[in-house]
Design the sequence.
């Protein structure tokens, strides 16, 4: 039980993610998460605005079970499987973040400076959260997949489009982390 | 109920993403700063084992649960869509520290603010659907 409540190292987590990929294919589906965002659009009536959302929901049903499972998995972890939320960050990262105004980096999974309720209720804080979401949702569907669909499934299947998409993920991520985050915080 | 198995796979995935800390904003920041091997190790080892799985599927060594050959479809081609779409995604990923899987995990953690990110992501997917025919491939 001791091992379960400790944070898991990469060489445990990575192979387990591959096992999830294996199970998804074994059960006859393609591993990926972001298409469910479109499914939510369809459920919300998006087909009235574009034929793009006219899809057979029966085919997508499994992915709704999958995302509900992910939410439950998150709940079980935070309630029962995590003794602490502290993260063992590189001290350089902690110091750099402190200079940017992020106090107590690594004391919890999420920085208060972005995710606190107080921040959410400010105009800037709200725009950051919703803006990040729009970039993610638009970007992943335009690219045809997210980290799971492209970086894990696609790269595993040696797909060139997935390599290009993953390079794109890094171009965007590096621009944000190195240039934009220091500007907005 | 035949979809229950996907619920269970999802629970497993949610626990793995939580326990491996990949749902943490800090882990993503650290990755893009190249200050830790953790995320590269997670994704890299998943891909290496994933390659092995895919080969076993293609050679027919492992069949699906019904005994059928597992066919893995090729990804849609298109240089602009993957590079530009990927870059836009990366901007949002680094800012919120969450990609679609972790968003659902964090909702399960009770992080209220992530629901705003998730709502934004659904709007983003909606905008893509509206524009999909007009965007370059």
Sequence:
């Amino acid at each position: 039980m001791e091992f379960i409540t400790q944070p898991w190292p990469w060489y445990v987590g990575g192979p387990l993610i591959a096992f999830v990929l294996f199970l998804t294919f074994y059960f006859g589906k393609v591993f990926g998460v972001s298409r469910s965002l479109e499914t939510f659009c369809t459920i919300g009536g998006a087909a009235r605005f574009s034929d793009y959302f006219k899809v057979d929901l029966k085919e997508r049903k499994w992915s709704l079970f999958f995302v509900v499972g992910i939410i439950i998995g998150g709940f079980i972890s935070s309630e029962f499987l995590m003794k602490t939320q502290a993260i063992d960050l590189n001290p350089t990262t902690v110091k750099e973040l402190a200079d940017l105004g992020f106090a107590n980096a690594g004391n919890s999974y999420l920085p208060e400076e972005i995710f606190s309720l107080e921040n959410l209720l400010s105009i800037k804080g709200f725009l950051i959260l919703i803006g990040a979401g729009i970039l993610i949702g638009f970007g992943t569907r335009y690219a045809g997949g997210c980290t799971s669909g492209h970086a894990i499934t696609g790269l595993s299947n040696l797909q060139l489009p997935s390599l290009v998409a993953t390079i794109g993920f890094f171009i965007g991520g590096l621009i944000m982390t190195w240039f934009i985050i220091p500007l907005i915080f | 109920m035949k979809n229950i198995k996907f619920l269970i796979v999802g629970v497993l995935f949610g626990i793995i993403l939580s326990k491996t800390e990949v749902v943490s904003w800090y882990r993503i920041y650290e990755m893009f700063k190249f200050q830790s091997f953790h995320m590269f190790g997670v994704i890299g080892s998943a891909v290496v084992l994933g390659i092995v799985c895919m080969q076993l599927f293609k050679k027919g060594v492992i069949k699906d649960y019904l005994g059928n050959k597992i066919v893995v479809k090729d990804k849609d081609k298109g240089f602009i869509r993957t590079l530009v779409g990927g870059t836009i995604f990366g901007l949002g990923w680094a800012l919120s520290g969450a990609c679609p899987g972790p968003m659902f995990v964090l909702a399960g953690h009770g992080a209220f603010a992530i629901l705003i990110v998730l709502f934004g992501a659904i709007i983003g997917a909606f905008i893509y659907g509206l524009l999909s025919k007009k965007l370059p491939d």
Observations:
- The two ends of chain B are 39 Å apart (CA to CA).
